[in-house]
Every structure is written in structure tokens, then in C-alpha cells.
Amino acid sequence: MPTIDSQRMGVLICASAMRILILGGTTEASALAALLAGDSRFDATLSLAGRTASPKVQPLATRIGGFGGADGLAQWIAAENVAAVIDATHPYADQISANAVGACRQAAIPLVSIVRPAWQPVSGDRWQVVASAEAAAALGHAPRRVFLSLGRLDLHTFAAAPQHSYVARIIDAPQQAELPPDIRFLQARGPFDLAAERRLLDDEKIDVVVSKNSGGTATYPKIEAARERGLPVVLIARPDKPMGHAVAGPQAAIDWLLHATPRSLRGV
Ligand code: NAP
């Protein structure tokens, strides 16, 4: 049975826990949620864009959907008394990161951004790095069997290259009307292992892979499998993603917040 003092202490710690917002939708955000769940120094909310119909259940309070630009995010931060933001969004999600920079500046609170390093080419890789809008043209004129490993929102671009046969791996079924005529969907959620990626490229007789340079390990095996087979990869260039204080991973983000924010916000 806890004593009154320890109960009071518990209330005091909860009352002064640092209120933080995690902008998520990535492996790093899930890792952060696992690290912060049950950590009484923090009172964290995870925010998801709502891009997938049934997102992975997280051990933190979760909200889903846009805020309404930088101003909407700044209003949410003020209303929720948020003391710091961790941007753990995908390397290609540049709009929400720009909003986070603007909103944290307005609210005068710290922003720490987890930056996932891009994959670097190694011997045997046959990469063609292109802007998103050029990816369909980069496949060339002759019909090819193409593996699209992209978000479902990016698939319409390939309607401009209807001569190819596409296999697209997606989490949820696409809703856009404009798609290439010969496209099949494989519904799956990463991570994907090398054996499965080898099988996929062989079974589907893939000639070329189209991918983002997502970085990390969860989706890298398709790049390895393509390299082993000498297949070309059309790699969509990363956007210039705005950021706050850049760190390499979830623990570094927490460590930085503990040093960058006033003691009064840390419950100490
Ligand atoms: P985005 O272009 O940066 O954001 C577009 C809008 O979505 C934002 O302005 C914001 O709306 C809302 N939003 C994005 N992330 C949010 C979050 N964590 N919480 C609340 N609202 C959020 O990002 P995107 O459209 O989601 O994706 C851009 C690229 O990133 C795509 O290539 C996609 O495949 C890739 N990607 C995204 C995710 C993801 O979870 N978002 C995961 C993997 C890959 P408001 O302005 O209304 O606040």
C-alpha cells in the first residue's frame, strides 16, 4: 500500500512531466513510443498523418490527422501545453517537417528532428537517382516489368508510362482513379527480409525497381536483392526536409530534450 507521501509524489511527478508531441509514422516513432511509454518524466502524444487505415497500435496516447498547417500545429501546441516537439517523420514527409519548424518557432519551444541517413550506393548497385516527377520517364520506352515500392499516393505518376507492367507493394488499397492499366497490388507492411525480396523479384520477373531512398534497415533488402541480380533501381531523390536540432535516433532525441529544456519542464 503506497504511503500518502509517495502518492502525492506520484501526482507531483505526473503534474510536472514534460508534455511532448511526437510527429510519427515511422519505425523511429514506434521506437520512441516504446521508450517513452511509462516514463514519468514525459507526457507524450504521438501524432500520425492517417495515411494507413489500421496503423500499428502504440503504447502512447495517439492522435490521427492533420493539424491544419503550421498555424494549426502551433494552436494545438499551445492548447495542449506542449513543451517540445520530436519530429520522427519519414524522410519524404517534408511538409509536416516544414510545419513543425514554423510552429515551434511561433510557440518558442524546442524541436528535435530524427534524421535517418540515406542509403549510399555500394559496388554493384545500378541506381538512377531522379526527381519524383521524372520516375515514370526514367523507365524508358520499351515495356518492362516494374516493381514499385512506393507509397500508394505516388502511384498515379506511372499512368504516364502505360506500356509497362507494374507490381506495386502497398499497405492499403489505392483510391486514386489514375493508375497505369497493367498494375497488380501486393498488400504488405514492412519490414521485409532478403529471402522474401529475392523471391519477389524472381517470381515476378522484375526488370527494374522503383524506390524512395528511405534509409534504415526495414526496406533495404529489396536494394540488396536488386544488386545481387544486377537489376537497375530508379531511386527517387529525397526532398530537402526542414529540421530542428538534428539527432540520429530516438534515444538521442530524448537525451537532447532533457538537456535543452528548462529543469521545470522536466519534472526535476
Ligand atoms: P507530408 O507531405 O509531409 O505532409 C502532408 C500533410 O499531412 C501535412 O501538412 C499534415 O497536414 C499531414 N501530416 C503529415 N504527417 C503528419 C503527422 N505525423 N501528424 C499529423 N499530420 C501529419 O507527409 P505525407 O503526405 O504523409 O507523406 C509525404 C511522403 O512521405 C510520401 O512520399 C509518403 O509515402 C512518405 N511517407 C509518409 C509517412 C507518414 O506516416 N506520413 C510514412 C511513410 C512514408 P496538416 O498541414 O493539415 O497538419
Briefly summarize what is shown:
The chain is an alpha/beta fold and 268 residues long. Helices cover 29% and strands 22% of the residues. It has seven helices and twelve strands.
Task: Give short descriptive properties of this protein.
268 residues; alpha/beta; six-stranded parallel beta sheet; 12 strands; 22% strand; elongated; disordered N terminus; binds NADP nicotinamide-adenine-dinucleotide phosphate
Number of strands: 12
> What spatial order of strands do you see in the largest sheet?
3-2-1-4-5-12
What is the overall number of helices?
Answer: 7
Rounded to the nearest angstrom, the distance between the terminal CA atoms is 25 Å
Percent helix, as a range, is 25-40%
Please outline the major beta sheet: 6 strands, parallel
Query: What oligomeric arrangement do these chains adopt?
Result: single chain
Task: Let me know the average pLDDT.
Answer: 91
Provide the structure class: alpha/beta
Secondary-structure element pattern, one letter each:
HEHEEHEHEEEEEHEHEEH
Attached small molecules: NADP nicotinamide-adenine-dinucleotide phosphate
> Which strand-content bin applies to the residues?
15-25%
Which of globular, elongated, flat, extended, rod-shaped describes the shape? elongated
Low-pLDDT regions: 1-14
Radius of gyration: 21 Å
